[in-house]
Write a structure and sequence with these properties.
Number of domains: 6
Structural class: alpha/beta
Order of helices and strands: EHEHEHHEHEHEHEHEEEHHHHHHHHHHHH
Shape: elongated
Distance between the termini: 70 Å
CATH topology of the largest domain: Cobalt-precorrin-4 Transmethylase, domain 1
CATH class of the largest domain: Alpha Beta
Strand order of the largest sheet: 3-2-4-1-5
Strand content: 5-15%
Largest sheet: 5 strands, parallel
Helix content: 40-55%
Length: 509
């Protein structure tokens, strides 16, 4: 062999799976370097007369991690390749499938001006596909177990089948399982394929939660994930919405615009809040889906108009999250939540300053949405102006302001004046909520729900006693009210629906 690196694929099993090209290289070589001797075909390779076989297995025990190990192996292979006779480096399977060292060798050899020759081998894929009886072109995804183990959410489309390769230990399988369970149900049936293409081949199916409980998981183990039943990915929902908007879709959906969808966006957001307040899991799933539909509809309209794509939306929010969490994705250290909030505000100020260089802001109130609920908007406005010091020095000042506004309301002489003074009083109360660290909108919504529960109980008490509410004086009503409060607020009383519904939900969508 001349100077250079020849990389040979050993295939997934014994010597009977070697390619003819690989056999010729082995026959012409006096020395072979293996990434690992833990391979079914190595025994026959080592038995060939006059062929010296080396491996890097001893380095595995010395390495702190795989990244540094693979870097070390690649550098050594390139060094050996610079000899007069070059080097033959053999790896399991196909050199271009799951072999980090091969990618590193190619880069290092290019920098050294050293030629690299790849001799293909049968990869693990072919015997695994045969064992499973599936077609690779049927949307199959391939993932590396190590990469999945290091993630918090799998970068897999659950609507498509997937193979997880190089699942080499039960410990790694436990980490992979936790990642997968962020997208797949714990009882999702998965299939393990051991030693595909060899005499030791085994194929069996288990629920996902049992993945790390299986004996015999080693470097020849592959995990198969069948797709979830029904549409389960964002892409599937986008396809459905795109179809609805297509010429052969729904006339109503085709007519919608960003502006026409505005009321539905607000409505669905409130439906989500209602489900949250009721702690209703089933309703929350449905209402989050309705809200997601609104987002996908707006993105589809934008895509049709050539404005932006879902990728732009996701890329923007992902970059913002990473930028605003340097203590997670950067080198910033924090001592607790309070420091996180301080950093968050500092980053936002920096972002606003950069934005103003492009589009100067006319007012500190720019960006507070006019369509927000009045109570929430009042609190957002108060928070904005407080940033520049337009605020009371302490909460006592807010309480005094509430008293002042209440007195002004009491002496207001006209409907217009009363409306103005009531607005001022509400604004002062919202500022009190801000000072107390309470979300005014949520507090009032909870108070409304609490009133509804109590009044429903009052109605029940009156009905049980044959009383007509409109025939009772204020004292009798107040007595019923106090009794209802005591019953509803008692800890042992089961919670009733936390909302007053005046009409059925609009099912236009």
């Amino acid at each position: 062999m001349p100077p250079g690196v020849t990389i040979v694929g050993l295939g997934p099993g014994g010597a009977h799976l070697w390619t003819e090209a690989a056999r010729r290289v082995f026959a012409d070589s006096q020395e072979i370097w293996l990434r690992t001797a833990r391979h079914p075909g190595v025994e026959e390779l080592a038995s060939q007369p006059g062929l010296r076989v080396h491996s890097f297995d001893a380095w595995y025990d010395e390495a702190a991690d795989f990244a540094s190990l693979y870097e070390r192996i690649a550098r050594r292979v390139v060094e050996l390749g610079q000899r007069e006779q070059g080097v033959v480096y053999a790896v399991p399977g196909h050199p271009s499938v799951g072999e980090v060292t091969v990618s590193l060798i190619r880069r290092m050899a290019q920098e050294a001006g050293l030629p690299v020759r790849i001799v293909p081998g049968l990869s693990f894929l072919e015997p695994v596909l045969t064992a499973l009886g599936i077609d690779a072109l049927d949307g199959l995804q391939i993932a590396d177990a190590d990469q999945l183990a290091a993630m918090h959410h799998p970068l897999l489309d659950p609507d498509r089948p997937a193979l997880v390769a190089q699942l080499y230990s039960r410990r790694q399988a436990a980490q992979v399982k936790l990642t997968l369970m962020n997208s797949y149900p714990e009882d999702h049936p998965v299939t393990l394929v051991h030693a595909a293409g060899t005499e030791r081949e085994r194929v069996f199916t288990i629920p996902l939660y049992e993945l790390d409980r299986q004996p015999g998981i080693d470097h020849l183990t592959t995990l198969y994930l069948p797709p979830l039943a029904g549409a389960a990915s964002l892409s599937a929902l986008q396809e459905t919405v795109a179809h609805l908007r297509a010429p052969d879709g729904c006339p109503w959906d085709r007519e919608q615009t960003h502006l026409s969808l505005r009321p539905y966006l607000l409505e669905e957001a409130y439906e989500v809040l209602t489900a949250l307040d009721a702690e209703d899991r089933v309703a929350l799933i449905e209402e989050l889906g309705d809200l997601l539909l609104q987002i996908v509809l707006h993105v589809q309209i934008a895509a049709e108009e050539g404005d932006f794509l879902m990728a732009d939306v996701i890329r923007t929010i992902d970059a913002k999250l990473r930028r605003r969490h340097p203590h997670v994705f950067g080198a910033v250290a924090v001592s607790g939540v309070s420091e996180v909030l301080v950093n968050w505000e500092a980053i936002k100020r920096s972002e606003r300053a950069r934005a103003e260089e492009v589009t100067p802001r006319e007012s500190i109130l720019d960006g507070v949405p006019a369509a927000m609920p009045a109570l929430a908007r009042a609190q957002a406005i108060a928070e904005r102006v407080a940033r520049v010091g337009f605020d009371w020095p302490n909460v006592q000042g807010v309480l005094e302001k509430i008293g002042e506004e209440a007195r002004e309301l009491a002496v207001a002489a006209t409907p217009e004046a009363r409306a103005t003074e009531l607005g001022d009083l509400l604004t002062a109360v919202v500022n009190l909520a801000r000072w107390l660290g309470v979300d005014a909108e949520s507090a009032l919504r909870t108070a409304n729900d609490r009133f509804c529960r109590r009044f429903r109980m009052l109605e029940q008490l009156a009905a049980q006693r044959g009383l007509e509410l409109n025939a009772l004086d204020i004292h009798a009503l107040d007595a019923l009210w106090e009794e209802a409060k005591a019953l509803v607020d008692a800890p042992e009383v089961a919670k009733t629906p936390d909302r007053c519904e005046s009409h059925p939900k609009d099912e236009a969508l």
